[in-house]
Q: What sequence folds into this?
């Protein structure tokens, strides 16, 4: 897991994943990178389902995203992500944009409400988890993932009730772990 704390550090546990932790002051809803490109986030809508389905079929996404070797079809994506589009959902999906071009998918969720064996001992409703990927495999290893994560984390911390942002990369996904480190997260331990 990776944690990004607004106040102070702590340990976290997640089966078969790496734990990360970091501290930062977060104020902006988007960031401008050195080439003057802005990263912004728009809430995921019904119109994004086909786009997400396409992205979930890309080899660099299949490798790490779903934990299986087969990408879901449009109907499966619709069943999974449509409930997340309502304002009362504890999972909030977004499409990230680099200027006007789609950059990737990113979501936050209230860790305490996750269920299915995740975060069972968590009691702080201010802890948010994040998951994300870049949509274009040719854009990997260019610093865009860490910029996207950093901008999104900054946006999440504009809400004063958010105490921690954490993530749980696969311990074999060195690129993702490096992305989180560059975005200000620190590894706590593998659990």
A:
């Amino acid at each position: 897991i990776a944690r990004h704390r607004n106040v102070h550090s702590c340990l976290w546990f997640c089966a078969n994943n790496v734990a990360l932790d970091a501290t930062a002051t977060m104020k902006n809803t988007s960031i401008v990178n050195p080439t003057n490109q802005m990263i912004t986030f728009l809430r995921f809508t019904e119109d994004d389902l086909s786009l997400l389905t396409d992205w979930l079929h890309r080899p660099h996404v299949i490798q790490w995203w779903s934990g299986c070797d087969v990408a879901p079809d449009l109907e499966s994506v619709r069943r999974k992500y449509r409930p997340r589009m309502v304002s009362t959902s504890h999972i909030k999906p977004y499409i990230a944009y680099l200027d006007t071009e789609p950059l990737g998918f990113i979501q936050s969720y209230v860790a305490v409400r996750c269920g299915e064996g995740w975060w069972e001992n968590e009691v702080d409703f201010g802890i948010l988890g994040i998951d994300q990927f870049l949509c274009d495999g040719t854009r990997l290893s260019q610093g865009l993932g860490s910029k996207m994560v950093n901008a999104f984390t900054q946006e999440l911390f504009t809400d004063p009730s958010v105490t921690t942002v954490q993530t749980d990369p696969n311990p074999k996904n060195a690129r993702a772990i490096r992305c989180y480190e560059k975005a200000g997260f620190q590894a706590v331990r593998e659990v």
In short: The mean pLDDT is 75. The longest strand covers residues 101-110.
